[in-house]
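stage 2 :: seqdesign
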């Protein structure tokens, strides 16, 4: 007898969908997905069937495709199917066959769902799939999110069979004499998941015959702990992550007070792409290695004086830009520089993003570039030469900003202006100045 009441109760308890929704059921032809569509039909839900032919097991794959086509006709529902060149996709995208199949089918499910007006996509995962997923995550390494298993609902994806075990599904299929097709690859231990299914779980069931029930109880606890952790992290994000001029600053003193430090710091940095091994190194560097820089795919993290500074990576850093006398503006990385020539001795005051210099001292073409080791200049107001590296220390310029500062260089090699900070004494407007050139920076 089909467990229709348990099926409907599970759907309602987890708010998966309602009788008013249109459901796209992913059907391979195996016993799990076959039982799912028979339950959907018996419970009176509005659904269609989608089947992917990955062209990996010809002629069996074609047999599976034809079986699901006939199943849809038998149930009187819409049928959608597609043929994939899975091996070519895997080669082109440098991924495994399994990952290629996963990517293609979910992309296609989303396309069909949108074009045909389906509200949810139903997948036939069951309790044993959840156990396999958790064990696989533990083997590969996971945070607490990897322990909650397969969720009943994740966005548009729903899994209405998670109340059943594989054994229960087999018993129902047999008792109801429902036809299905068997994927021969499921019996192979070539894939990691199958090794867990056929070799590891049978051993665990010898230790605990009620393994599925035990895991289900554990899953509820893990999910509750994840909720508590995420709520705690959301509060910490508001307290600790300070937005400042396109960067994120985090007080090292506040980090040291976190408990458990490693877990909470990892969760705080997770959105910026920093992995757990980086967090381990970072904790070591907090007190001992100021100036240490860590990188993720999209961000740079600097251990600065008393704080962490997280900044997005620039898409591309220009080595230098040439400036000709007739130029009125140029763009250098995240800055725009404007030039204005004036027949006066105008002096710019109290604006670090603008400077006026004696125009007759300029040797064109000028350059705008990043600072380089060994750079020196004469800071305005000083008669002695100073290394830019020493100037940055004196001005407390954060380490990660040094390479981004635009340095204006004369045609003779002299530094005219450290953009945003200080012009050079040798190029200041004096009593003998007749014409000035005004340079002004704008942050893009």
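stage 2 :: out
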């Amino acid at each position: 007898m089909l467990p229709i009441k348990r099926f409907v109760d599970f759907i309602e308890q987890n708010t998966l969908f309602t009788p008013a929704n249109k459901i796209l059921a992913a059907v391979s032809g195996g016993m799990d997905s076959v039982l799912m569509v028979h339950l959907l039909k018996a419970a009176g839900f509005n659904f269609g069937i989608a089947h992917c032919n990955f062209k990996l097991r010809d002629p069996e794959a074609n047999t599976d495709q034809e079986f699901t086509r006939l199943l849809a006709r038998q149930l009187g529902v819409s049928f959608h199917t597609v043929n994939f060149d899975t091996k070519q996709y895997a080669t082109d995208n440098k991924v495994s066959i399994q990952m290629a199949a996963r990517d293609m089918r979910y992309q296609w499910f989303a396309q069909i769902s949108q074009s045909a007006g389906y509200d949810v996509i139903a997948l036939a995962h069951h309790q044993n799939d959840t156990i396999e997923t958790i064990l696989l995550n533990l083997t590969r390494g996971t945070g607490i999110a990897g322990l909650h298993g397969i969720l009943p609902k994740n966005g548009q994806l729903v899994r209405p069979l998670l109340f059943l075990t594989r054994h229960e599904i087999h018993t129902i299929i047999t008792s109801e004499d429902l036809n299905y097709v068997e994927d021969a690859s499921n019996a192979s231990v070539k894939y990691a998941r199958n090794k867990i299914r056929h070799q590891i779980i049978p051993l665990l069931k010898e230790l605990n015959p009620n393994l599925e029930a035990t895991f289900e109880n554990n899953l509820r606890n893990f999910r509750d702990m994840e909720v508590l952790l995420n709520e705690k992290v959301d509060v910490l994000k508001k307290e600790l992550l300070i937005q400042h001029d396109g960067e994120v600053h985090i007080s090292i003193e506040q980090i040291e007070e976190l408990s458990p430090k490693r877990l909470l710091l990892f969760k705080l940095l997770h959105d910026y792409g920093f992995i757990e091994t980086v967090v381990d190194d970072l904790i070591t560097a907090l007190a001992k290695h100021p100036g240490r820089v860590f990188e993720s795919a999209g961000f740079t993290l600097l251990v600065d004086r008393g704080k962490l500074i997280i900044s997005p990576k620039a898409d591309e850093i220009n080595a230098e830009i040439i400036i000709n006398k007739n130029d009125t503006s140029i763009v250098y990385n995240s800055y725009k520089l404007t030039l204005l020539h004036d027949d006066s001795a105008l002096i710019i005051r109290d604006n670090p993003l603008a400077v006026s210099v004696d125009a007759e001292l300029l040797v064109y073409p000028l350059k705008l570039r990043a600072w380089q080791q060994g750079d020196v200049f004469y800071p305005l107001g000083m008669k002695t030469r100073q290394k830019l590296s020493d100037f940055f220390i004196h001005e407390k310029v954060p380490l990660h900003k040094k390479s981004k500062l635009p340095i204006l260089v004369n045609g003779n090699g002299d530094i005219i202006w450290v953009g945003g900070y200080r012009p050079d004494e040798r190029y200041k407007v004096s009593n003998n100045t007749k014409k000035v050139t005004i340079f002004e920076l704008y942050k893009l």
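stage 3 :: structure notes
- The chain has a mean pLDDT of 89.
- The first strand starts at residue 22 and ends at 26.
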